[in-house]
Amino acid sequence: MLNIRQAEADDADAIWSIIEPIIRTGEVYTLPREMSRHEALAYWFAPAHRAFVAEDDSGIVGTYYLRANQAGGGSHVANCGYATVAWATGRGVARAMCEHSLEHARSRGFRAMQFNFVIRTNDRAVRLWQRCGFAIVGTLPKAFLHPQAGYVDAYVMFREL
Amino acid sequence: MLNIRQAEADDADAIWSIIEPIIRTGEVYTLPREMSRHEALAYWFAPAHRAFVAEDDSGIVGTYYLRANQAGGGSHVANCGYATVAWATGRGVARAMCEHSLEHARSRGFRAMQFNFVIRTNDRAVRLWQRCGFAIVGTLPKAFLHPQAGYVDAYVMFREL
Q: Which residue of A has its CA nearest to B150?
């Protein structure tokens, strides 16, 4: 049984253990691969972010943050970043976090959610976000330098709430 | 004769006098309309930004900043924000700044430039960026709350360098 709750300072070790390998691969996030633990956690827990964790009997298996994607006239559109621990992929953690984030965003009055940079080679994510109701509304040509695949497209994905 | 050069701390008054009215209208930037001078200049001169000014015989008539749009595998794509003083619109200042920024981005090794949020009602800007070689690669539905027009679309615009 997966429980999703707001992250606390005590969750920092678990969050770092999930996001560090993803950052190090350089295949998914537009974050520097060499980012330090301190920098990464400062980003995940940025003042404008709200961070969550997903836990089951084995402990914390996923984390995400939610923020306004833009300020001013763009502040009704939310944005999220998600991460699942490698050994728990395929168990619905990301989908559960996405659904939780959509509900949380709705409850805070956001009217839409946007993902700014979904890398085309990340098929699992693209398909999952589509199943969660997101559409590809833009394609950024060769906007991501993938460590293995070279320059690849990235998608902008969007859905109303 | 327009000269474009890197901005210095002494240019802060001129830059603020250009961007303040644009921020206050809330019609163009996704910045809070109530943003203070201090916050706005901290944004314009952010460590990751490089700021420029355009000046002619009358003084500083425009300003822009350039930055990497993303970190990590997205850091080869530049992003800019431009502002022209109201009384100088229609004199080619924005176009000259855009061309300068494209050249500067090329010289720093950027391979493309992306504008994340060009508001559909800002026809002048959309047409100008198209004349400067940018294509609309994405449409963000009703992603901007315009003070007069209500919820309007925003474009993602992109060009290779």
A: A73
Q: Is B154 helix (H, G, I), strand (E, B) or coil?
A: strand
pLDDT in 10s for each residue of chain B, 161 residues: 899 999 999 999 999 999 999 999 999 999 999 999 999 999 999 999 999 999 999 999 999 999 999 999 999 999 999 999 988 888 899 999 999 999 999 999 999 999 999 999 999 999 999 999 999 999 999 999 999 999 999 999 999 99
Interface predicted TM-score (ipTM) over 0.85: yes
Closest CB from A26, A72, A158 relative to B26: A72
Q: Which domains does chain A have, with CATH numbers?
A: 3-114 (3.40.630.30)
Which H helix or E strand runs over B19? helix B12-25
SS3 string of A33-70? CCCCHHHHHHHHCCCCCEEEEEEECCEEEEEEEEEECC
* B18 to chain A, closest Cα gap in Å: 18
